[in-house]
# Entry
Amino acid sequence: MSDNTCTGRPHGPHRSHRRRAATGLSAPAAVDLPRGSPEPLLHLEFAPGATTAEVERAIRYWTPGSAGGWAEPAAALGAPTRVAADLLSVCRVHLVRHRCGTCSAPTRVASRSDAVALAGHDLLRRPGTPPTCPDCRRAPGDPGTGGLGADDPGTGGPGPPANRP
# Structure
């Protein structure tokens, strides 16, 4: 039986691992866009199993145009209604200039439409009120504590009954 930590199936590694191994190339862990810009607008973080073809497709999809909008239409990369959904498993995309009002992390977006809705056509618009990221919205406790419970900041929840006033 093959040692397959990816899928646990006895027949070998996942197909994405086979493609990656066959090319001998490794995908970057992250890319800032536009490339070479001293002030990037987007930060892409790639999944460890992403192939170079998937990474290049994601970079092409997310590269901003020089006059706003996007460098390539989504239709050039596949079915426009599927491209963003397909890329969700390949990378996470963050708007570098949009930061969470609680934890200061860059705002994560799932599609070009999300990015434009938050940052405008040129991705430069800043919100009047900083948004709250999904992790901070889901976290228990007081938003002012970064999601940690007010009673016990070390564990993120209330302390034992003996420690309460």
Residues 151 and 158 are 5 Å apart (CA to CA).
